[in-house]
Structure formats: structure tokens, C-alpha cells
Amino acid sequence: MTSVNRSGFPAAIGVFAIAATALATGALASDNKIALIPGGPHPYFAPWEQAAADAQKDFDIAAVDFKVPAEWKLNLQTELLESLAAQGYSAFGIFPGDSVGINSTVTELQSAGLPSAALAGCAQDPTDMAFCLGTDVYNSAYIGTKELIKAMGGKGNIVHLAGLLVDPNTTLRVKAVETAVEETNGEVTLLQTVADTDAQEAADQKISALLAAQKDEIGGMIATGYIPSVVASKLLRTLGDKRIKFIGIDDDQIVLKAIEDGFVAGTMAQNPYGQGYIGAYALDLLASGDCTMKEDAPWIETPQTARFIDSGTMVINLDNIASYKDDLKAITADIQGKFKDTYMTCS
Amino acid sequence: MPFLRRLLIVEWSGLAVAIVLGSVLLAVLTPNFMTEYNIYVMLRSFCVGLLVGFAQMVTLGVGQMNISVGAIGGLVAISFGGMMEALGVPLVLAVPLAIAIGALCGLINGVLTARTGINGFIITLATASAFTGINLGITEAIPFYNMPAALVAFGDERFFAFPYLLIAPIIVTALLMLFFARTVPGRQLLAVGGNPHAADLSGISRERTIVLAHVLSGGLAAIAAVLAVAQLGSAQPSIGADWLLLSFAAPIIGGAALTGGYVSVVGTTLAVILIALIENGMVLANVDPYWVQFLLGALILAAVWLNRWRAVKTGTD
């Protein structure tokens, strides 16, 4: 007796859609050179390298390159941008490590006719970034907390493991978790928010201390940063504790393995590949000079920018752990397929 | 009371009093503080920090600074993880090789400092960038995940509240105390730090002593990196990135002279315990996350002031 594996179906649609778009745009070969530039070295951006290679091939762009500043410093990122502009690059997909500080360089590039877009994180308005394509951090934290509350049976005490306090997105995530908790009408209590857990050793020390102090009172934990997500997954495995439900973020191997082994209930997937792939596609159209961004597109307004596009988020759990990458590709294909008509005016 | 007087004369007694007072306060305020698991957590978090403090302490002893402590730690961590995951080097061989890489980095720092006559601060500032660059060039910021089960178990397992990870810092602490108190190179190191000219006149090779201090510093940073990999269960390129502040804070709070010539192994140990205690206490006490940094700084200042007050009162200033 054979069974039909349906998990590959969305992937097949996604791959087909990407291929179809590629064929459709293949005839319009572009001589643009596009650079995708993260704020600094970080494993989150690793899929951008493949996204750049795929976008170059699929959309027949002269070059799409992944260029990483040596460190997480604004001056290194801006020096890299200026150097690439001097080398003839025509558009830039940028993760703004400093959401305000990046704007003067973006304006300088724009005045030279070189468009930029914010990818994976937004620049603070007013900005000359054409758009911001990233995870809706509020929505992701809200959905993640809802998922956690569901895994806990709708009641109990939770803890929020947050990232850098100076990051404005952390404030949004804190609000999202608080809102989801308030909606339970007292069934769920937010015991504590542990912040500044963005370094491995600090995260290990703080989360260990938290578990030591309140292990028995905690029913669930949600991490909204990459590092605390990895560290908490590892610590719950070490403790051998499957009672505490945990929702992480991103798809680090340690988190995925912990989901498979039952120590983590789920993780909120972001779409770094899609951010790089769609970003390169849109920047190519902007750099060609044939397209501009629509003023009246269905932009999402966030505290940082009035031109936000959600790159998609989803929960990875035991049910979809084998197929989530295909699901993300389907989301990517969907956004990319509609991007030009929805957000751009082209001649 | 002669006993109390004798106790107060000891340079690190102010830190010891602060630790005892802090522990009693936390035990009263938070019932979970004295649990076996929390003591294990504190002891475990103290292991890497102590070796990081020692790595800076030995260069301070000779009147130098090592800005590259964290960069050496990061490079050793990914070399250690990489040689086991990518090259299949067995753990028993990888550990000494990792320490040798750290010592080699220290040798480069030492030779460049001693031979060029350029201040170690400048040399290690430059090599820190170079070591971090090699780290990122090799890993492209992607960690090595597949560490041997024995190493991960060593980083996690415990005997009641005693983490196995603590074995290495205990051995290193004992050896360092012996080194500075009883060995000729140890005494020479402090002599060069205290008065380089007098040391020259006594026939001590200043160059050789500076190189020795940097090699020791690199080796200690490497041991810290190996412990960090064991503790985290993966070789992360970001290991060491936030070591610099602690590396200076611990020996200086512990009584080391910034100008060289005097270090305290016990004082540095107590300073790391104090910092770990404060950080642990703030999580246990559910301190508002926006005030954690302020309180950490204020409590460390209070502990340093207590020790200073003790020194003035006992005439050991």
C-alpha cells in the first residue's frame, strides 16, 4: 500500500511559480549589479548568499553579490556601500545595523541614482530607502506567544527572553507578548522579561539563572531573539525538561533538533532567503529605471517606516518541520509574483 | 579583635565581605538562591569568566595589556570546533592543539611587542582585529555544531552542585598561585612589571618575560574558549566578543596594579565570583531589564568602594 505525500505539494507550486517567473523575466536581461549587504557577520544572513545566486540566475541580472561588512559597525557598512558604488554597483539591499545612521549614506546613493531597499530590518523614517521588506516583528512575537499559550493549554506563567533593549524592535516584541498575554484575561501571567541576551555566554548565564530561580513556576517561555532561542533550546535539553513549553525564533539546527526531540514546541520562522531573493528582484527593476514604487500601494505602517512589506512568518513545529522550507519558498514565490503589480509602477 | 584586624588587612577581604553579604541578602530575599541547581548555575557561569580574568591578569602583571583576549578566544573556539567537526581530530588531541593555538597567538603578540618596542596595547589592538578576521574568514559567521558528546557532557554534567567544568579553573588557579608565588619566571614577571629598569639591572630579560606573559595570556584565553565551547555545546564565532570588559574588571577589582608588578589570583577569583553573584541575583530578583546595567555598575562600584574603605582603615592603602 502506498501513501501520497502531500507535504511536497506547496513546494512544487512554489518552485513552479519561481521557475515560471524566471522564464517570463528571462527575456529581459539586465546589466545591473546588485549588492546584498547585512549589518555584519551573522548566521541569520547565510541564506542571502544562495538567494543572491538564485536571483541572478532566475532574473538574468548581470550580478547579485552578497557582501558582508567585517564587523557590526555603521562606519564599516557605509564604507563598504561607498566602495561598491564606486565599483559600479547599481542598487543595494541593506540590513540597517543602525536604523537612523544608515540614512545619510542611503540619501547619498539615491542622489547618485543608486536605489536602496531595507531588507530584514527597516531604516527609520524619513528615509530614502525605496521600501522595507522584513519580518513583521510585532506580528511574529504575537503569533508566537499565542502558539505558546495554546501549547500550555491556555493557562500558566510565561517568560519572555528578549534581545537587545536598545533595538526598537525589542520594544515592539515586548508589547506583542504583553498584548497576547492580556487577551487571556488573567489565565496566563507574564512572570518576567529577561533582556539583553544577544551574546551566547550572557544568554547562557541569564537563562540558566532564570531556570534555577523559577523552573517550577514557569509553564512556558518565548524567545524573540536568535541567540536566546538557541541557548534556551540547549538548556531545556540539558535539563531534560519537556514540561516547560518553549517557542523560539529562526531555524538554527539546535532549535530544529530540539523540536524533533520534543524539548521545544515550535519556532517562528522568518524568511531570510525570500528577503534576499525578492529584494534583489525589486532592486533590479528599480535600477533599470523603468519602475518606481507606488505611493498608494498596500504598505504596512510600522513605528519605523510607512513603507513596510511583510516577508512572511510561520510557526515551525513537529507537524511541518520536514516541509517548512518548501512552505517558505511558496510564500516567497507568492510575494515575488505579485510584487511588481502590487508595489510598483512600471513603464 | 586581632583576628578581625588580621582578616581586614588581607587585600581581598573587602570582596569576601561583599560576597558574603550579597549571598545572605539573596538567600533571604529569594528562596531559590540556595538551591543545588542555582549554585551549580553560578559555579558554571563563573568558569569561563575566571580564566578570562586570569588571561588579562598575567599581562597586567608585566605592565602590559592584552586587548586581543576575546579575539584569541573566538579564534581558538572555532579552530577547536572546526578541527573536530571538519577534520575529525579526536577530542584528546584537539584540546592541546587548541591551547597551543592560543599560546601561538600570545607568542605573536609577545614577540611583536618585545621586538618592536611598540606598546602592547597597540599591538594587541591590531592583532585582535586580525584574529577576529581569521575567525570570520573561516566560519563566515556560521558556528560548528557537531561537538563530541563527551565534550558537551563535560560542559553540562555535575556532581550535586559541582559542575565538572569547574575542574579546569580550579587546577589553573592553583597552578597560577604557585607560578606567581614560588617559581622564578613568575617572580621575574612581576619584577619586570614593578620596575623594568631594576629588573634589567638584575639580569632579567625584559623581552623574554614580556613574551612569556603574552604566551601565558593566550594559553589561558584558549582554555577559556575550550570551556566556552563545552558550555555552549557548539563552537560559535561570537565566543569572546564580550570578554574584554570582564577581562579588565576582574583583575582590577581583585587588586591588580594597572601599572604592573602586582596581581592577586585570589582577588581576581573573588571579583569574578562577585560579578557572577550580582548577575545571578538580578535575574533571581526579577530586576526591571531596563535597570540591570545601572545596578550592575552601581553594585560593582559599591564593592570596590568597600575594599578601598577597608584598605584606608587598616592602613594597607
Q: Explain this structure to me?
A:
The complex is a heterodimer of chains A (347) and B (317). Chain A is of the alpha/beta class and 347 residues long. Chain A has two domains: 9-135 and 271-312 and 322-346, Response regulator (Rossmann fold, 3-Layer(aba) Sandwich); 137-269, 3-Layer(aba) Sandwich (Rossmann fold). Chain A contains eleven helices and 14 strands. A six-stranded parallel beta sheet of chain A has the order 2-1-3-4-5-12. Chain A has a six-stranded mixed beta sheet with strand order 7-6-8-9-10-13, sandwiched between helices. In chain A, strands 11-14 form a two-stranded antiparallel sheet. Chain B is an all-alpha fold. Chain B has one domain: ABC transporter involved in vitamin B12 uptake, BtuC. Chain B is built from 14 helices and two strands; from the N terminus they run αααααααββααααααα. A two-stranded antiparallel sheet of chain B has the order 1-2. In chain B, strand 1 and strand 2 form a beta hairpin. Chain B starts with a helix and ends with a helix. The chains are: A alpha/beta (347), B mainly alpha (317). The A-B interface holds A 41-43, 45-46, 68, 70-71, 162, 165, 191-196, 199-202, 204-206, 208-215, 227, 231, 234, 238, 253-254 and B 30, 32-33, 35, 37-38, 40-42, 44-45, 48, 132-133, 136, 140-143, 145, 156, 228, 231-234, 236-239, 241-242, 276, 279-280, 283-284, 286, 289-290, 292-293. Chain A: Its main location: other. Chain A: One of its GO terms (cellular component) is cell envelope. Chain A: Residues 1-29 form the signal peptide.
Give a quick summary of the entry.
The complex is a heterodimer of chains A (347) and B (317). Helix content of chain A is 45%, strand content 18%. Chain A is of the alpha/beta class and 347 residues long.
Mind sketching the topology for me?
The complex is a heterodimer of chains A (347) and B (317).
Chain A: H1 9-26, E1 30-37, H2 46-58, E2 61-66, H3 74-86, E3 91-94, H4 103-111, E4 116-119, E5 132-134, H5 137-151, E6 156-161, H6 168-182, E7 188-194, H7 200-214, E8 220-223, H8 226-239, E9 245-249, H9 253-260, E10 266-269, H10 272-288, E11 291-293, E12 308-310, E13 314-316, H11 324-343, E14 344-346
Helix pairs in contact in A: 1-11, 2-10, 5-6, 7-8, 10-11
Chain B: H1 2-9, H2 13-29, H3 36-61, H4 69-85, H5 91-116, H6 120-139, H7 149-156, E1 158-159, E2 162-163, H8 167-182, H9 184-194, H10 196-201, H11 206-232, H12 244-253, H13 265-284, H14 292-314
Antiparallel strand pairs in B: 1-2
